[in-house]
Amino acid sequence: KNKRIWSTWNQKNALSLHPTQLQILQRALRLCRAGGRVVYSTCSLNPLENEAVVAQVLRQASGSLALVDVSNLLPGLERRPGMTRWAVPREGQLLWEAPKGHTSSMFAPSKVE
Fold it and tell me: What pLDDT sits at residue 57?
């Protein structure tokens, strides 16, 4: 881990990593064979780099991908459930859902999704 990260971290940096993480996962999915498995993991605690990325690729897949619980394969691995809601910083505010008429891959899935 880079110890300087904590002293230089800011919301802008966190927001800028979302598209990079999204591209990494999208590339992995393109390289995966049908019926294969992709494991996505980051070193971040930021839901914009984790849950938001997974939510977006599931949206884009329109049902052709599945999120699979594999906890039984590694029973000794300590884990916690992912977040289902998170705030997105935008223009000095924390938004919990995309503004009307706007879409963003950073927001949690709606109840309809």
Answer: 95
What is the DSSP code string of 64-90? S------GGGSTTS---PPPS---EEE
Check residue 111 and give its pLDDT: 74
Residue with tokens 């809601």: 85
Answer for the pair 98, 104: CB distance below 8 angstroms, yes or no.
yes
User: What pTM does this model have?
Assistant: 0.85
Average pLDDT score, the chain: 88
With 70 as the cut, is the pLDDT of residue 104 above it? yes
Around 52, how many Cα atoms within 13 Å sit in the side-chain half-sphere?
A: 27
Does residue 43 have an active-site annotation? yes
Q: Which of 34, 43, 70, 112 is catalytic?
A: 43
Neighbours of 26 (CB within 10 A): 14
